[in-house]
Design goal:
GO molecular function, one term: DNA binding
Number of domains: 2
Strand content: 15-25%
Helix content: 25-40%
Pfam families: Methylase_S
Oligomer: single chain
Protein name: Type I restriction modification DNA specificitydomain protein
CATH architecture of the largest domain: Alpha-Beta Complex
CATH class of the largest domain: Alpha Beta
Largest sheet: 4 strands, antiparallel
Keywords: DNA-binding, Restriction system
Shape: extended
CATH topology of the largest domain: Adenine-n6-DNA-methyltransferase TaqI, Chain A, domain 2
InterPro entries: Restrct_endonuc_typeI_TRD, Restrct_endonuc_typeI_TRD_sf, Type-I_RS_S_subunit
Distance between the termini: 73 Å
CATH superfamily of the largest domain: DNA methylase specificity domains
Length: about 160
């Protein structure tokens, strides 16, 4: 696993450019500086909401409040993402007002890495579960909207339940 720091500030972001830039939550603009990796990589929040991770597309960049972790030949990006999603960064956090984590503090942490084929299988199972959770959340949102509309129609007497 390799790490790549970013020194890109929000002031350096433009509305046009060659390389997409992401902040903690979203795509925020472009830069013409270099990209982090030519393959997907993991961004990790190092200031504020420390330890929050996500997979970002290749040939993109991130703000300096985040770091990038790049999978090596011993692991897959997806497995590393799920592993870090459950990693407890509390012991590696410093700062009283705004928490910070530094790669140098957790880079020596020993982690269990199953064989690559097992990593792929684990990541696929967890990815399928994530997809199912998203689908169920969307269904719940649809049912909430139906209930809200039905509630309005019932309470306004637009729909009558009992016949006179």
């Amino acid at each position: 696993m390799g790490a790549s720091p970013s020194n890109l500030s929000a002031e350096q972001i433009t509305q046009q450019g060659k390389i997409k830039v992401y902040d903690v939550n979203n795509f925020i603009g472009y830069t013409n500086t270099t990209f982090i990796s030519d393959k997907p990589y993991i961004s990790i929040v190092k200031d504020g909401s420390v330890g929050r991770v996500r997979i970002l597309p290749p040939k993109t960049n991130i703000l300096s409040t985040m770091g990038a972790l790049i999978a090596n030949h011993k692991t897959t990006t997806e497995f590393l993402f799920y592993l870090l999603s459950n990693f407890d960064f509390k012991n590696f956090t410093s700062g009283s007002i705004i928490p910070h984590i530094y790669f140098k503090d957790y880079k020596e942490k020993t982690i269990f890495l199953p064989p690559l084929n097992e990593q792929i299988a684990i990541a696929n199972i967890l990815s399928d579960l994530d997809s199912e959770i998203i689908s169920l959340k969307n269904k719940k949102r649809q049912f909430d909207n139906i209930k809200k509309a039905l509630n309005h129609d019932l309470m306004s007497a637009k729909i009558r339940v009992l016949k006179k």
